[in-house]
Amino acid sequence: MVQLFSPVADTWMRLFLIGGLSLVGGSVVAVVGFARSAYMTETDIRPQQPVPFSHRHHAGELGIDCRYCHSNVEMGPRAGLPPTETCMTCHSEIWSNAAMLEPVRESLARNTPIQWTRVAKLPDYVFFRHDIHIAKGVGCESCHGRIDQMALTYRAKAFTMEFCIDCHRDPAPRLRLPDHITDMAWRPTANARKEGEAIAAHEGIRFGELTHCYVCHR
Questions:
Q1: Longest C-alpha distance within the chain, in Å?
Q2: What is the dihedral of CA 73, 180, 215, 202, to 10 degrees?
Q3: Which residues form the Class III cytochrome C domain (predicted)?
Q4: Is pTM, for the whole model, over 0.85?
Q5: Which of 62, 140, 185, 201 is most buried, with most CB under 10 Å away?
């Protein structure tokens, strides 16, 4: 009987299958890696700003509380950006002639807001309120990272659905008392779960409902 395949055909078939599976596996890894990359999640990217504002200097070195500039964070859906008048409460007295602050002085003179490039932003289809999270014991650092150490502001956490769901599934260990909401150095204690459950009970957090679709998509 005539041999249809050469002796090396089986070897070539094995190599073809191994190569095909490697290509598929590599493609999946590449797609997942790209989806989680800084380019897609916009993390660790420092966008150009009209004024090189340093949270490290203001919040870290000077110890200015987050709520001094983001005054609406406890009362509304957005933290808000400070009006120029807030900046000038200090900079009318210090660094009043600094060249880098010329856009701030011009903004005040023309009564027009500074056009900051927003760093922390969510898609329009996501329902989110800062005041609810602050009231329930979620600290600024939980979502924004150690912003008090950022010379130039960037997004430290990827605001993906997975990021939000991980917290909504088990928020207790992450909750903190009101005195520590803006404390960037806060870390959970050994009794973090028990303490968080006490906060959740006091605030009326219903654990079983936090992962329902309507909570974030309305």
A1: 100
A2: -120
A3: 45-94
A4: no
A5: 140
Both structure tokens of 69:
């500039």
Extents of the domains making up the chain: 9-41, 55-81+118-216, 83-115
Residue in the block written with tokens 């500074």:
114
Residue pair 161/168 in contact by the 8 Å Cβ criterion: no
Digitized pLDDT (tens) for each residue of the chain, 218 residues in all: 566 667 676 777 778 788 888 888 887 776 766 566 666 667 888 999 999 999 999 999 999 999 999 999 999 999 989 999 999 999 999 999 999 999 999 999 999 999 999 998 898 999 999 999 999 999 999 999 999 999 999 999 999 999 999 999 999 999 999 999 999 999 999 999 999 999 999 999 988 899 999 999 98
Single-letter amino acid, residue 53: F
